[in-house]
Amino acid sequence: MARTTVSWMELPAAGSKPSWTQKGIVLRVRQRSRFADFVISAIDGFKRHRTSRNAALLAHYGFLSVFPLIIALTTVLGFVLQNNTHLRTTIVNSAMANVPIIGQTIGSDPSKLHGNIIVLIVGLATTLWAGTKAFVAAQNGMNDIWEIPDDERPKLAQSRLRALVGIAVVGVSQIASGIVSGLIGVSGLAVGLLALLVIVSIAINIAALMASYRVLTARRLTRAQLLPGAIGAGIVFSILQVVGGALVIRATKNAQSVYGTFASVIGLLTWLSFHSIVALLGVEANAALDRDRFDRSAFAAKTAPTR
User: What pTM, to 2 d.p., does this model score?
Assistant: First the structure.
């Protein structure tokens, strides 16, 4: 790999203590490898921007939004399954029986499901509130990563509007991705068609991440600034959807006999935490690449011979 030079922009100011990325063997590794420079810069950014804290907050509010949604779904099923024995039997024998809390109720006694308008309204309202808070947390995380000053960030109303747009983007993409993932799981499909469906699933995740990164970041970013992290995170998301979902369901299903609903809670929270970390790591990768491009262009301009 070609030798690279750490920019003068990264050197510590006079009298200041150099960070761990600017001294010793770490600095020498960065000088010798552009890829190592990128990885170390991303790791340093992950620490400085408190990305793990923002990812935990995103997963927390995402988790809070799921259970009211499950309550709303249970209420809807109560309306649908009322006086419909055939549909009730079909759902009991379907994948719906694996959904936390709902699945246990359907499997043990489907007659316990009842429709209630007030519960439905409260459940949807609570889901919308918690989902909005989750996407506000995502905005804060992305703005921290891009180091956007507080006075340049959106105000209360604007941040909530961006959050609603983000919810719409992710909601539509998850529906589309879920349909594609379901088709991938169908047996008997040709290998070529399965490969095409996998590519489509990855493309949906990449497009959703790019749109989310653009909408939820207070700075206007170009496609080149958004694409690398969206590609990496989109591929990991697709792997989680195809492989991780089955692993989580299996683990929680085996643990439910001992730990009951608590196992489902742990599995769901772990699932959301993985997605939150991956999404913000994609932003960290974009920011690290952008810093690298800026520093190298600034260094080239500083060292260019004058005429």
Answer: 0.77
